[in-house]
Amino acid sequence: MIVPYTPGSPVDVLARVVTQHAAARLGQTIIIDNRPGAGTTIGTKAAAEAAPDGYTLVIAATSFIIAASLYPKLDYDPVKSFAPVAMLAVAPQTLVIAPSIPAKTVQEFIAYAKAHPGELNFGFGLGTLPQILGESFKAVTGTDIASIPYKGGAQAVTDMLGGRIEMNFGTTSTLLPLIQQGKIRALAVTTQTRSKDLPDVPTMIESGLPQLALIFSAGLLAPAGTPAEIVGKLNTEINEVMHTPELTAAMRKLGFEPKTWSPQDYGAFLADEMQRWPPIVRAAGIKGGMIIRLRSPQSLRSIPISPSGRGRAARPGRPPSASRSAARRCA
Asked: Are the C-beta atoms of residues 45 and 52 closer than 8 Å to each other?
């Protein structure tokens, strides 16, 4: 299974948990092949070019859906190059900040960031949902927070623990232990309702940012041309595994909500999501994984927090002093 994410990232963790249980049922060894880079498009391209025999799958998360908006000249077609196999899970994203920031709520953090323009750093995996959420946050709130890209979100979390990053979005699966240990502070979740794992953390809607109520999704794809009977068998077997109490418990412990859909339902979901995300990506001011400009809060279709405020991208060549090592890490 191709995983176009860095080892230890939320999608990698999900892939390993699912394959661990699926391998026994299928009677086959499933090898995880991590191929991160270029906003997950390197690994995804490799999967598109693989033989359509059912032996190569790729785990596709929200980054797969938004890649067409970020990279107009992809070497594959996100619709025509793949056959949907199975939906796996959805999960909330959580806005976290460094405990050194004296803010306990989203609104307090916005006020702090406005009082310290250009002094805070936002870390994210390039071309991922956290990047979209973070740039949307900056655009809507009119805050000037430097953007520091990484190959994967796990690296950004590491630098947050090291004091080089002050703001991050991530899934509960990777952030929950750090939140519980007090190493990072959760301010809001992106789901419509509060997370069972973080019942005291408000939603983005409760925090006054309903336009950031966006969630992570993940599923499995096969190369286009994979015989329908193979896709059907894989879907049946994976869905059966997903229904087992052991896997359901393991996924929920990691912050993922299991989903079991037919290939047709998963394909329809992907088609709908690919129509929904382009305006969100454009409003966040991102193209090709990089920030091109940030539009007014009104472009995100909500009441603006700052009538004329705009976020600003990290200044090329001169990130804040605290972020220079992080910037070099991504070069």
From this structure: no
Identify the H or E element spanning 266: helix 263-284
Q: What is the pTM of this model?
A: 0.72
Phi first, then psi: what are they for 266, rounded to 5°?
-65, -40
Q: Is it the case that residue 327 has pLDDT exceeding 80? A: no
Q: Does pLDDT of 306 surpass 60?
A: no
Cβ–Cβ < 8 Å for 181, 200: no
Verify that 265 and 118 share a domain, yes or no.
no
Residue 314 predicted with pLDDT over 70: no
Residue appearing with tokens 């309702």: 193
Section 68-91 average pLDDT: 92
Higher pLDDT, 125 or 190: 190
Let me know: does 106 contact 207? Beta carbons within 8 Å: yes
Same domain, 237 and 325: no
Question: Which domain, by its residues, includes 162?
Answer: 93-213+296-329
Examine residue 288 and state whether it is found in any structural domain, yes or no: no
- Does residue 8 carry a pLDDT above 70? yes
Structural domains of the chain, count: 2
User: Are residues 220 and 191 both part of a single domain?
Assistant: no
**Secondary structure of 11-56 as H, E, C letters:** HHHHHHHHHHHHHHHHCCCCCCEECCCHHHHHHHHHHHCCCCCCCC
3-class secondary-structure state, position 187: strand
Cα separation, 165 vs 288, in Å, equals 23
